[in-house]
Amino acid sequence: MGTERNVDLAMVASLWRRPVPDDDKYSRGVVGVVAGSDAYPGAAVLCVSGAARAGAGMVRYVGPRRAQDLVLAARPETVVHADSDAIDRLPRASAWTMGSGVADQPGQDAVIGAVLDSGAPCVVDAGALQDLARARQAGYRATPPDRVLMTPHEGELIRALAAIGHDVTRADLQADREGHARLLAETTRATVLLKGSQTVVVAPGGQTRTLPMATPWLATAGSGDVLAGIAGALLASGLDAADAGVCAAWVHARAAALASGDDPERPDGSGGPVTALDVAVAIPRAVRLLKSA
Ligand SMILES: NC(=O)C1=CN([C@@H]2O[C@H](COP(=O)(O)OP(=O)(O)OC[C@H]3O[C@@H](n4cnc5c(N)ncnc54)[C@H](O)[C@@H]3O)[C@@H](O)[C@H]2O)[C@@H](O)CC1
Ligand SMILES: Nc1ncnc2c1ncn2[C@@H]1O[C@H](COP(=O)(O)OP(=O)(O)O)[C@@H](O)[C@H]1O
């Protein structure tokens, strides 16, 4: 347990699933996205854009009407579902991304609960992290540890740990980022991707994988929502949670470097500013780099 591996292009290229002639949109993976809310409708667009650009065969979006409309305006290929309908009949999806920009939306909370009960593979972000941590600590673990990926930033990791009885300061966390990510992973029996300039992915009872430093231009509102969408597409394509997290973080960082014009090998901020949607648009170019490995 706890052995370290650094992530590089060859590792990601060997894991990334490319479509084959026999594929159809379902076999390539259908991602259900429960993201965005009346308070944060833009997170829905960013999360869906991340999933679509990373190669999902289909994206199903579940959320409030205004967010549905924004999603369709930006990504008309998305199939949208009202959260009130989805509670009765969960849309069929190979994996789910849930929680980015979700805040005080009872319909979405009910869908998130139903997905977790179903045991489907899922990425859990932002507004869904604390409830998931509490539920898994209490033993409600329908989804196996290698199929659930929690994606906190440092503030969210502190709150998720507090929700399960571990009070941690920002200084404690920064002194040992991997140790605290592992504390959440082992206590909840879930895979944890801790975001930051250097992202780490911790599998419970397994390895820690450390990503290269990303361009500091990536520290911009909504870029984490794009990452959650990418990871959902990769879980839906059949990767396990740790591999999906590693590949998503690598492609996300490369897409940001490409969009910024920063040095992809040693990003130092020498490029220009990027927005979250710029990162999503650059994902296909980052995926193309994988074929050179
Ligand atoms: N366009 C949109 O709709 C956007 C929606 N977003 C959503 O907005 C909600 C609130 O997210 P926020 O993170 O902004 O605010 P939160 O209210 O979740 O967190 C704020 C607290 O966490 C700390 N914190 C925030 N980001 C951090 C980071 N990257 N690393 C370490 N500590 C950090 C701050 O110091 C602060 O104490 C989330 O659901 C998120 O997904 C954001 O992604 C921004 C864009
Ligand atoms: N200083 C930094 N350098 C490089 N990447 C960063 C830095 N800070 C944050 N990131 C990355 O940017 C993204 C921010 O995600 P998050 O904090 O969830 O923001 P949001 O909630 O606004 O989407 C993550 O992928 C994280 O790894």
Notes on the protein architecture:
The chain has 293 residues and is α/β, with parallel strands linked by helices. It has a single domain, classed as 3-Layer(aba) Sandwich (UDP-N-acetylmuramoyl-L-alanine:D-glutamate ligase), CATH 3.40.1190.20. The chain has helices at 9-15, 42-53, 65-74, 83-88, 106-118, 129-137, 154-163, 170-175, 177-188, 223-236, 241-260, 276-281, 283-289, and strands at 4-6, 30-34, 58-62, 79-81, 95-98, 122-124, 148-150, 191-194, 200-202, 208-210. The chain is globular. Keywords: ATP-binding, Lyase, NAD, NADP, Nucleotide-binding. It is an enzyme of class 4 (lyase).
Provide tags for this entry:
293 residues, alpha/beta, UDP-N-acetylmuramoyl-L-alanine:D-glutamate ligase, ten-stranded mixed beta sheet, 45% helix, 12% strand, globular, binds ligand NAX, binds adenosine-5'-diphosphate
Q: Write the CATH homologous superfamily.
A: Ribokinase
For the biggest sheet, the summary is:
10 strands, mixed
Return the string of H and E elements.
Answer: EHEHEHEHEHEHEHHHEEEHHHH
Distance between the termini: 29 Å
Low-confidence stretches: none
Count of discrete alpha- or pi-helical segments spanning 4 or more residues: 13
Strand content: 5-15%
- Average pLDDT, all residues: 96
Assign the structural class, choosing from mainly alpha, mainly beta, alpha/beta, alpha+beta, or little secondary structure.
alpha/beta
- Ligands, deduplicated: ligand NAX, adenosine-5'-diphosphate
Count of folded domains: 1
Q: How many runs of DSSP E, i.e. beta strands?
A: 10
Name the strands of the widest sheet in spatial order. 1-10-9-8-7-6-5-2-3-4
Shape: globular
Question: Which value, in Å, is the CA radius of gyration?
Answer: 17 Å
CATH topology: UDP-N-acetylmuramoyl-L-alanine:D-glutamate ligase
Please identify, by name, the CATH architecture.
3-Layer(aba) Sandwich
Helix content: 40-55%
EC number: 4.2.1.136
Catalytic activity: (6S)-NADHX + ADP = AMP + phosphate + NADH + H(+); (6S)-NADPHX + ADP = AMP + phosphate + NADPH + H(+)
Subunit structure: Homotetramer.
Family: Belongs to the NnrD/CARKD family.
